[in-house]
Amino acid sequence: MSNEVWCIIPAAGVGKRMQTAIPKQYLRLHGQTVLEHTVACFLQHSAIHGVVVVVSAADEYWAELAPKYQGQRVYQAIGGQERAHSVLSGLKYLQQTLSLAEDTQVLVHDAARPCLAAADLTALLAAKAEHGAILATPVRDTMKRGFKGQTVISHTEERADLWHALTPQLAPLGLLTMAIEQALQAGITLTDEASALEYLGLHPLLVEGDARNIKITRPADLALAAFFLQE
Q: Over the chain (231 residues), what is each successive 10-residue block's mean pLDDT?
């Protein structure tokens, strides 16, 4: 049995909703890029053996950051068309290039979530769920369902037992690789790693995390992340 824990950070997206000239993971926060803050969340945690950053083939920014990580267990893989393809590329890197065992625990974390608390990461790793686990927060707001393609309310959704999925999401290397491969082959749209495990009929564990673990998606999120990091 492997006791190693590795992290994959898919960073091949362009972040169109940020309305910026450069990908959101390379925007600046307190003198560093968003991605640097995100990588630091894992390098600073004693349980993490290494990090694989998955970038696009056309990425012109990672080359400037890579030298900072020499000797720090940070590796690079090339991503694919969608997030799921990039995550799969990272998983294959762990299997084929680093020759890690199939039962190695793997975390997948959004590049644009730089505010992950060390306590949340520790809690997720402590879950040791056989079929995976994710950080999540219970839905507290009233949830409205709109008519398809319209900005008109159809009905109110029952919020009991609804959760906002966060990252990182945790699963064994071999299991997650198989789940993503099978779901992609079946044409399933995967919005996170848990949805691939769900496709196999599995039920990953929900571990309540801190709501400050936001994903930078729109311009206002950058200021909020800066506030949380300063706090």
A: 89 70 92 97 97 95 95 96 96 98 97 98 92 97 96 96 97 98 97 97 98 95 95 81
Helix/strand/coil for 152: coil
* pLDDT at residue 3 in the model: 84
Statement: 5-230 belongs to CATH 3.20.20.140: no
Q: Residues 167, 209: contact at Cβ < 8 Å?
A: no
Q: C-alpha angle 36/17/211, rounded to 5°?
A: 60
Question: Shortest CA distance to 173 belongs to which of 125, 109, 101, 123?
Answer: 101
Sequence-distant (6+) residues with CB within 8 A of 118 are: 41, 44, 45
* Two structure tokens written together for 96: 């084929």
User: Which own/partner contact pairs does 18-23 have at CB distance under 8 Å and 24+ positions apart?
Assistant: 18/216, 18/217, 18/218, 18/219, 18/222, 19/219, 20/219, 22/61, 23/59, 23/61
Domain locations in the chain as residue ranges: 5-230
> Torsion over CA of 64, 67, 72 and 76, rounded to 10 degrees?
60
Look at residue 15 in the predicted model and tell me its pLDDT: 59
Q: What is the dihedral of CA 3, 100, 170, 183, to 10 degrees?
A: -150
Residue entry with tokens 């190693």 = 4
> Structure pTM?
0.95
